[in-house]
Design brief:
single chain; 7-stranded mixed sheet; 6-stranded mixed sheet
Length: 446
């Protein structure tokens, strides 16, 4: 049983990478904003050291386990799900509030029950594991009901970090897509959630949409035997989170408009449509919970045209945590995006390496998703072109993991030119893994 210490509060920093020079008449300004938090608990898989047991009400976690009838086929799937959830429970830090939910066409409290959360210690962890041993499979799948129960339970705790871990093996067949979306809309901003699909009978876009809406990670565990290790890693990461509800606050001057804001590392995540207004010419973009980690964001703004030699502040990026009274706690880090007009063609036409890299990574993710959709639709030529472009981008950017996944779906003739042939037979798990992980990016070498 792992018992992780409560980390210290992280310190945030912001670095901006851009080419601020624009040609005469130029209006588009691009910048990569790197946000780093240090001193908070987990970094690159490292975890905090054990500590003596003691009260710690900093986090609440809901574990949602698919118990639908399909989890019985093969029988090892349900057993592995129980074992994985038990491993995650073992990773809970003492004092963390938690609950286990069994999900079918309805949501059931497995532990502790009574609309309550348990508080992790040796006794409650053992009770949860005993309750897990009694879980059996039967019924349908209505994931929205699981999320709504998780929200009710998590909201009962006066804690900073609220997080869910959701496991499913099938399609969400017992509620409408509108019901699931309504549940996601209701839960967004209230807790974060990692989602996992086990086996190959689930819908990639359903699972990734859950993680995206709730600012968590999504992945496939094709072999149920890998669930315990994956659940343990997820819980270790959750135990390292120390600051919740962090938002990028982007201020722009009069006449400047924001074209988009997106996370580009460690995954591509569109944030533009999630803006909430934060006073005159400022908006907040949610980033979820943070521990000891670093993420990159692409900010693109359109500025008013200006004459040669003029310069302006195009955007100011800061980090805040919204407060219940409508105010915001400033985390004390900010970065400036600038625009300078010049007739130096060399300066104004060079693309910043970070911007170029992540523009390619975003195109890579889109090419994979479009290519796989075209393949499913039977458009062989379109799929070949898109997946060939993906191979070319993966090779050029050094994204070796994605290149390996692509090579299981296409035969690569020439990676440099993106010349490929679709494989006649592709294992379903390989195609689903490529689709699920298509948004994972590699960091630019600075």
């Amino acid at each position: 049983m792992a018992n992780f210490s409560k980390p210290s509060v992280p310190r945030f920093s912001v670095d901006v990478y851009q080419n601020e020079y624009l040609p005469e008449g130029g209006r588009e300004v691009n910048a990569i904003v790197t946000v780093t938090s240090t001193g908070g608990g987990t970094l690159a898989g490292a975890t905090a050291a054990p500590r003596p047991a003691g009260p710690d009400a900093g986090a609440a976690v809901a574990l949602m386990v698919d118990c639908s009838g399909s989890m019985d086929y093969p029988p090892t799937k349900m057993r592995n799900a129980r074992d994985a959830t038990a491993a995650a429970v073992d990773t809970l830090r003492d004092g963390v509030h938690f609950a286990v939910i069994g999900g079918t066409h309805v949501a059931k409290e497995v532990h502790p029950g009574g609309g309550r959360l348990a508080v992790a210690d040796a006794g409650t962890r053992e009770q949860a594991k005993q309750a897990l041993r009694r879980l059996s499979a039967g019924g349908g799948t209505a994931i929205g009901t699981w999320l709504r129960l998780a929200d009710r339970l998590l909201s009962s705790a006066d804690v900073a970090i609220r997080h869910g871990i959701l496991l499913t093996d099938g399609r969400n067949e017992h509620e409408s897509p509108e019901d699931l979306k309504a549940a996601l809309d209701a839960c967004a901003g209230r807790f974060t959630c990692d989602a996992r699909g086990v086996g190959t009978d689930w819908e990639v876009k359903e699972v990734t949409s859950i993680a995206s809406a709730l600012l968590g990670s999504a992945d496939i565990v094709a072999d149920p035997a890998g669930l315990a290790a994956d659940f343990t890693r997820m819980m270790e990461t959750t135990m390292g989170k120390e600051v919740a509800d962090v938002a990028l606050r982007v201020w722009t001057p009069v006449g400047t408009t924001i074209r988009f804001v997106k996370q580009v590392a460690p995954t591509v995540e569109e944030l533009t449509g999630r803006r909430t207004e934060a006073g005159p010419r400022a908006g907040d973009y949610p980033t979820g919970s943070w521990g000891d980690e670093s993420r990159d964001y692409h900010v693109c703004v359109e500025v008013p045209a200006a004459g040669l030699g003029q310069e302006m502040l195009a955007a100011r990026v800061s980090l805040i945590v919204p407060q219940p009274d409508g105010s915001a706690q400033n985390l004390g880090a900010q970065g400036l995006v600038r625009a300078v007009w010049t007739d130096d063609m060399t300066a104004s036409t060079s693309i910043n390496p970070q911007v170029a890299h992540y523009t390619g990574q975003a195109e890579l993710a889109q090419a994979i998703q479009e290519g796989l959709d075209l393949r499913k639709a039977g458009d062989i030529d379109g799929a070949t072109a898109k997946l060939g472009r993906a191979v070319q981008l993966a090779g050029a950017s050094g994204n070796a993991d994605t290149a390996k996944l692509l090579a299981k779906v296409v035969d690569v003739v020439d990676a440099a030119t993106g010349t490929v042939r679709l494989k006649a037979k592709v294992a379903e798990a390989d195609e689903m893994t490529l689709e699920t992980r298509s948004t994972k990016t590699v960091r630019v070498k600075k």
